[in-house]
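If you are new to this repository, start here. Below is one unmodified record pulled from the training split, so you can see the exact layout before writing a loader.
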Amino acid sequence: MRVDNNITSIAIGSFDGIHKAHQSLISKADAIVVIERNCGSITAGYRRGDFVDIPIYFYHFRTISNLNPSQFIDKLIEDFPNLKDIIVGYDFEFGYKKSGNISHLRDIFKGKVTVIGEIFYNNISLHSRVIRKSIKDGKIELANGMLGRYYECKGKIIKGQGIGSKELVSTINIETDNYTLPKDGVYATEILINNIWYKSISFIGNRTSTDNNFAIETHIIDTNIILNSYYATIKWLKFIRDNKKFDNLIELKVQIEEDIRVVKTIH
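And here is the target side for that same chain:
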């Protein structure tokens, strides 16, 4: 690992989400050390860099999982030769089978150890697992509050059924992975295409009224664009309604038009 020798302080953690509690650590550091287990499912891998303005270094868990606490600190000192301050959360554990805690860290590391206490949002203790559950439960506004930003998913634009523009409304279909997906239903959203954000409405779930296949479909509101991008990013703003089955496309179109009316009031 090649690092900037000017780095004297690092924040350590998984940083899945780069949420408000994470930002409390990051704001005090010159760089971030991510202990990467599974590429993250709120803010996947490299996308963490979209939400911070300091260097990020990744330690893949499988490469350090056998290091005892002292060996782990030795590795940090080797990789960051001018390290003077390690910043961690109040529940930080490290080393083989999490055998090290903050007390061990202070004993082993000869520099400063800065510990950030528990952070709350609306009396809820901030943790990535809580945000993941909120997203899965459709409590997207709560998740956004804990993140301190709108939740985003980036994906590849794929071909859809082809009936939207003919029978319903035109949609952009997204295929994505390594993200915690919101609860099935309809959402007020924004979509980023070719570096421009558009007001939109999105459906996620199985298309129970047509082919019953899973889809993420987004309709851009009151705007026609020439689609010449391979990728898009969706911001999830607000949950509108649950997924439900309609007897025919006419009933479905009436509901979609009502959904768009509701979403326009949100935008």
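Two things worth knowing about this chain: The radius of gyration is 22 Å. Residues 249-266 form the longest helix (18 residues).
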